[in-house]
Write a structure and sequence with these properties.
The structure is a homodimer. By secondary structure, chain A is α/β, with parallel strands linked by helices. Chain A is built from 13 helices and 15 strands.
Chain lengths: ~425, ~425
Amino acid sequence: MNRNLTVRPDRIAADIEALARLTEPDRPWTRRAFTPRFLDGRTYLEAAMRAAGLEPRLDAGGNLIGRRKGRAGSGKALVVGSHSDTVPDGGRFDGIAGVVAGLEIARALADRGIELEHNFEVIDCLAEEVSLYGVSCIGSRAIAGTLPADWLRREADGRTLADGIATVGGAPSDLASARRDDIAAFLELHIEQGPILQAEARNLGVVTAIAGITRIEIEVHGRADHAGTTPMHARSDALTAAAAIVAWIDLMAKARAATAATTGHFAATVGEFRIEPNAANVVPSYARLLVDARAEKRAEMEGFLTDLDAYLAATFPGAGGPSATTRRVSDNHPTPSDPAVLATIEEAADAVGVSHRRMASGAGHDMAWFARIAPAAMVFVPCRDGRSHCPEEWAEPEAIALGTEVLLQTLLRLDRGALDEFAHHDGRS
Amino acid sequence: MNRNLTVRPDRIAADIEALARLTEPDRPWTRRAFTPRFLDGRTYLEAAMRAAGLEPRLDAGGNLIGRRKGRAGSGKALVVGSHSDTVPDGGRFDGIAGVVAGLEIARALADRGIELEHNFEVIDCLAEEVSLYGVSCIGSRAIAGTLPADWLRREADGRTLADGIATVGGAPSDLASARRDDIAAFLELHIEQGPILQAEARNLGVVTAIAGITRIEIEVHGRADHAGTTPMHARSDALTAAAAIVAWIDLMAKARAATAATTGHFAATVGEFRIEPNAANVVPSYARLLVDARAEKRAEMEGFLTDLDAYLAATFPGAGGPSATTRRVSDNHPTPSDPAVLATIEEAADAVGVSHRRMASGAGHDMAWFARIAPAAMVFVPCRDGRSHCPEEWAEPEAIALGTEVLLQTLLRLDRGALDEFAHHDGRS
């Protein structure tokens, strides 16, 4: 790589390595939110923020925020953020790369003595991953003002989520104070967690939207019969019905994914599957499937859900044969990136000279919550073989540095009023 | 029902009712082998044998044998048998109906003062159902001399199977003495445990063979990927592969079952099925299926197994996509009924005037073990909706009585030399 970067890959690599060492020793790489290891990570990040010229503080939601004042003083903030917690047996880059990118941008600004108009912040959002409390994005939800109050009473290991937030230094009784209305723009860098950038040998993914996620539980009821004595034609086998449903979902998802160029990212997965009684010599009487469907465009999701219900009703009416019922377990709409920030990122990427493509994020990210209160967008950097949430997760420091450079150049454009310009050209006031 | 029967439905109903009362009180109908309840049942049966003119004894294999001496004195025995143990939450008829049929035949012979040439025996075989020791047909295997010696060391609840056999009064150290070579013919009556006789409104099934049972474990290996970020076309989903295998097995089994008139009973069931990691947002990396295949004719089973291996090898070669491997967990060949006994049963059924049809038994029975040492056959009586191994299991006492009458008339024919006659016509010596 021969580019003349403002940011330094070696410092990015050093941060990532230092944080990787702060893992549960018996199961690398594990630094779950609310654990002593997580607090070790926060201690490292706080020191790194200070060294990068950022003034660290904790907000009521337990987010670690490092700030560098802008020339405008009390103006709005340009924010780069992600999260430093991991899943169990997770990786060294998911979330972490984005926080480290923020640190490196702060250092690069300091190196060059660049002063911004806006305040600049790096935020390590609390508990983006599903933590022991069974929920995700605690910190970014708090900043968006959308953390459900009853979640604070969720319990794990005899402590509530409120206790957990207090442990990391947050103020659960004053949660409303975490809500922000002073963010000029939010940027997040993240590893792709998929194989596309590597396969296409591109430096950067410019994320157009975070896909909506709908989870559908399907229950199939058949009849338990003796596997030896019940003729094939006289059965009501819940497993063969469920197998047909799995095949249908896969076919339909592939059909929708095949038109992604016009209809956006689509995927559907049956991730959970079990049968009853699950005995060698008994025809299965029951099957439960949990479908995880993701769509960049809400209309695609609506179409899939309508088709699914129609298919199940027509194919498994239950008169003598198996019946199937569905329940929508959760249903989150897609979050589009801000078009002005998106355009600014693409300008910056062209200026830096990295190859890039637009793509949707199939996974959820803190960005989705910031998008509720500010113009927000994110970039993906390539990772090895698309592996993520596993110890093999890997991204090259040089690849992260390229993405970081694009964010820095985006930031400078935004600071100089790129959003206002865009609004002007776009006819927005 | 207006037939003039030698046997009495009321006495059959009374025995079944009396045994039904000897159940674990909190989960009717449960009388598992080796439990105190089972011994209560044995106490009842021993008294009932004596009352029916049978001399009870326990053999080394823990079988309860009631004998009525024949005129020939030390000659061979005609045996009617089944089992009095149940599965957990089982029924009142599975096995029990066959033991009670034997008792009623003894009573009918006594009522009419009929003396047989042969000795006559009713055998309550020990532990036909899978007991707490995880294996089945303990007693009938002992009589056939095929109980594996190492099974005696199997443990459950801190006791060995040898201890269990001793508990019921058997002599595990002298197991060889249970082996019989003096059985002239073995007859078993059993509920069908399937829906065919009821659907066709027939009184009796004349069992041509006990189907062979082959259990095949199929393991599918794919790759765990993020359900949100991995495009549909880039996956190696073990569940969609396993679902296709389930569908293939069902289709192939239905095709073979459709030609049952010429190729015999065939059924295949995927009874056990699980996936890993079984997490909502992860593409399944692994699936395990357990196939239970049953065939009246060995050639059909061989054909199915060959087809299955060819299908899996062709469809899941594993190059990038999922791979599938099979392991034969168990493989028992079919047991045909003795043709002479079968023909005699059909003559008797015609004489009694019951409607009957030939059919295979999809389930295993004690008869399969007796068939190794003696001419053996069995009959099925209809049961309600084919339900079995469940509390709803039901057969009408009148239906059992008709089957019992046929067995009695078969026995009288066999006693008068029907087997010799058949051998003569058949050209056998």
